[in-house]
């Protein structure tokens, strides 16, 4: 059974043993602590345990501050495996103890704060200087100061841009423009502003300012805001650039001072120490949170939670030995309990559990679909990718990642999916005759090459030549998968002892759809009358059963029949004929993606063959095109095969029987998606 049996347990212990008990539970890593405050009235003698987390949160804030600050200068370098997915930090109790004893967090935090203050101040000044230089860029070529601009008593001087198309609108004979003096101040030829705009000075009396500014607006004048300093622009800009260089040097010096916070005695040593401290204090915080979920009276403390049935004996023995005064009771979860889910699978089946978790975990009293989607996924993936060469590449990648990620459960499952998917791809690629597309042809590798021999030996059907037969095979796979989903719905109903549901949502639909397929055979081909008649009887019997049972939850008898008729279409009820037809057609993507992989590979082979005829460098270009083209096709086609195989499961398969959304079983302990403690002997 993939969904593990859980026990609901209650631990009653002396009040003063609460902290020690929580630590013991955390060390064992077997019990998920749940909130018990809802079990008692507000006025009851039992109250929630209160634990202060200020000190713990302060430690975590300091650690995060140092990590974030050091990442500004020295971002953590990611390996190829870590770039695929986040990896947890793996440590040991010995390493944790060493870091706690040797790492001076307070001293490093103080040092980081001092550097951060200087860095923030320098960055702020650098930003201000860069903004001022950007503002001065339009007038950086002017060689005079601005003293005269701000000392005139009766005249305004403005500088700005006028679109070239509007220059004819500045008419000296016009009444307003007659009271304005202007002069063009050409910008440097390198400036982009000179292409469509002209830089110009305008002078006018302050008494005419309002009228002149309206005229300037009419020609779309864009005024340049001039700085208030009196020195020459060139001198001021030179000074700003010197200041900018000085502050940037200061930032570089800070980066060197930050290095000890990251490197330590060995590369990455101090960063790892910080991450270990973060793991430790996060674990301590989780202990405090768990302790607050319990309640206490004057003399005793009560904790409730869940534990795997297989761990119950070991857990009880360990707690009873360490806390002989405690009382432990266990019971099966009640029907209305929010029971978490723990899944246990054979090693071979575990990789596909990753897909189930992506969709949502099954509820505790249902069943895990993971064992029932093993064959489906790998068959779908193999058909979509279907190329021997690409399959060997994917299997090699999966095998390599598998050897490197054994301690990382999630990533290791993904690597094994790639490995098994690569094996499936090799099998279906050989059956469909695709070896790096058509690279086996004599025009690429010569007459009698090994790929040609293997291709001829293993090919069963070429989808390029027998497309219709291949399409019918894909649709046939879809029919089988749909019926499999309906049978799993029956299985789930039988597990719940819902025999009527198994009959109406299972047997009736199988009979109806089987009869429909037999009848369709008469439409699309010549079939024996006996098969047609059998299909007609099956369809009729199944449809009658559906009409009588699909509205079984409706009280009105007339409404039951109407609902039954409507359910045949698929608007209400567990399924529908239109849903069946639509889902079956979705399996055409198996053929479509398989053909796409082969066609794109053949296109790159063709391009490479054309390049090979170029004198001198033809063979080099031939190899480059083959390697680059097939690498591109490998990545794109593998992604497409993975996504569409999941879609055929999540949409066209899970929709027939599965409902996910349960919460995972999360026992109190050090291990988490971020941190893992290596056990003795691992």
Secondary structure blueprint with pairings:
Layout: E1 6-14, H1 18-28, E2 31-34, E3 47-48, H2 54-73, H3 80-84, E4 89-91, H4 93-102, H5 105-136, H6 147-151, E5 155-163, E6 181-184, E7 197-205, H7 209-218, E8 222-223, H8 233-262, H9 269-292, E9 295-296, E10 300-308, H10 312-322, E11 327-331, H11 350-359, E12 361-362, H12 374-385, H13 388-404, H14 409-432, H15 442-445, H16 450-458, H17 467-495, H18 499-524, H19 529-549, H20 557-569, H21 577-586, H22 588-612, H23 618-650, E13 660-662, E14 675-677
Parallel strand pairs: 4-14
Antiparallel strand pairs: 1-10, 1-11, 2-10, 3-9, 5-7, 5-8, 6-7, 9-10, 12-13
Helix pairs in contact: 1-9, 1-10, 2-5, 2-9, 4-9, 5-8, 11-14, 12-14, 12-22, 12-23, 13-14, 17-18, 17-21, 17-22, 18-19, 19-20, 22-23
Can you offer a commentary on this structure?
With 682 residues, the chain is α+β, with helices and mostly antiparallel strands. The protein has a domain at 147-226: 2-Layer Sandwich (Alpha-Beta Plaits). Helices cover 57% and strands 10% of the residues. It has 23 helices and 14 strands. It has helices at residues 18-28, 54-73, 80-84, 93-102, 105-136, 147-151, 209-218, 233-262, 269-292, 312-322, 350-359, 374-385, 388-404, 409-432, 442-445, 450-458, 467-495, 499-524, 529-549, 557-569, 577-586, 588-612, 618-650; strands spanning 6-14, 31-34, 47-48, 89-91, 155-163, 181-184, 197-205, 222-223, 295-296, 300-308, 327-331, 361-362, 660-662, 675-677. A hairpin with a 3-residue loop joins β9 and β10. α1 packs across α9, α4 crosses α9 and α12 packs parallel to α22 (588-612). The two termini are 27 Å apart.
């Amino acid at each position: 059974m993939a969904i593990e049996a859980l026990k609901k347990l209650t631990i009653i212990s002396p009040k003063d043993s609460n902290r020690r008990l929580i630590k013991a539970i955390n060390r064992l890593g077997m019990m998920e602590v749940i909130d018990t405050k809802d079990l008692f009235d507000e006025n009851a003698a039992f109250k929630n345990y209160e634990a202060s987390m200020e000190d713990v949160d302060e430690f975590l804030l300091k650690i995060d501050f140092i990590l974030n600050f050091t990442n500004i200068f020295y971002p953590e370098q990611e390996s190829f495996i870590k770039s695929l997915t986040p990896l947890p930090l793996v440590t040991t109790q010995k390493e944790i103890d060493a870091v706690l004893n040797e790492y001076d967090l307070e001293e490093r935090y103080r040092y980081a704060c001092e550097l951060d203050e200087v860095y923030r101040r320098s960055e702020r000044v650098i930003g201000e200087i860069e903004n001022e230089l950007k503002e001065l860029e339009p007038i950086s070529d002017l060689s005079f100061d601005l003293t005269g601009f701000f000392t005139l008593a009766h005249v305004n001087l403005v500088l700005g841009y006028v679109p070239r198309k509007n220059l004819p609108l500045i008419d000296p004979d016009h009444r307003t423009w007659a009271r304005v003096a202007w002069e063009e101040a050409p910008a440097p030829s390198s400036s982009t502003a000179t292409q469509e705009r002209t830089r110009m000075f305008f002078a006018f009396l302050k008494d005419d300012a309002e009228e002149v500014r309206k005229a300037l607006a009419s020609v779309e004048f864009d005024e340049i805001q001039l700085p208030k300093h009196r020195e020459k622009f060139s001198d001021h800009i030179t000074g700003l650039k010197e200041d900018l260089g000085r502050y940037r040097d200061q930032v570089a010096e800070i980066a060197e001072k930050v290095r000890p916070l990251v490197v330590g005695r060995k590369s990455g040593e101090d960063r790892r120490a910080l991450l270990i401290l973060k793991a430790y204090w996060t674990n301590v915080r989780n202990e405090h949170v768990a302790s607050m979920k319990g309640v206490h009276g004057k003399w005793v403390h009560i904790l409730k939670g869940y534990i795997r049935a297989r761990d119950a004996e070991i857990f009880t023995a360990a707690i009873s030995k360490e806390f002989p005064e405690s009382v432990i009771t266990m019971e099966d979860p009640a029907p209305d309990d929010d029971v978490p889910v723990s899944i246990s699978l054979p090693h071979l089946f575990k990789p596909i559990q990753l897909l189930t978790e992506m969709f949502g975990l099954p509820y505790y009293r249902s069943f895990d679909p993971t064992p029932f989607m093993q064959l489906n996924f790998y068959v779908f993936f193999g058909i979509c990718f279907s190329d021997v060469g690409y399959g060997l590449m994917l299997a090699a990648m999966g095998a390599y990642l598998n050897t490197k990620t054994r301690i990382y459960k999630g990533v290791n499952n993904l690597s094994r999916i790639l490995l098994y998917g690569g094996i499936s791809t090799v099998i279906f690629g050989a059956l469909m005759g695709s070896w790096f597309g058509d690279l086996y042809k004599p025009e690429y590798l010569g007459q009698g090459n090994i790929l040609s021999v293997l291709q001829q030996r293993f090919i069963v059907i070429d989808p390029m030549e027998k497309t219709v037969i291949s399409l019918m095979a894909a649709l046939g796979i879809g029919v089988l998968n749909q019926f499999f989903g309906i049978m799993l719905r029956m299985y789930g109903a039988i597990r719940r002892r819902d025999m009527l549901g198994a009959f109406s949502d299972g047997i009736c639909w199988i009979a109806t759809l089987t009869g429909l397929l037999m009848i369709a055979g008469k439409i699309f081909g010549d079939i024996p009358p006996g098969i047609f008649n059998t299909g007609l009887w099956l369809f009729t019997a199944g449809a009658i059963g559906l009409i009588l049972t699909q509205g079984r939850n409706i009280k009105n008898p007339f409404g039951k029949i109407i609902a039954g008729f409507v359910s045949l279409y698929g608007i209400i009820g567990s399924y529908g004929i239109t849903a069946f037809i639509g889902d079956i057609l979705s399996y055409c993507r198996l053929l479509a993606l398989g053909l796409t992989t082969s066609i794109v590979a053949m296109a790159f082979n063709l391009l490479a063959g054309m390049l090979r005829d170029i004198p001198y460098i033809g063979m080099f270009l031939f190899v480059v095109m083959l390697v680059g083209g097939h690498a591109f096709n490998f990545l794109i086609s593998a992604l497409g095969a993975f996504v569409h195989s999941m879609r055929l499961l999540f949409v066209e398969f899970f929709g027939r029987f599965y409902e996910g959304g349960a919460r995972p079983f999360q026992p109190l302990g050090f291990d988490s998606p971020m941190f893992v403690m290596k056990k003795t002997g691992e």
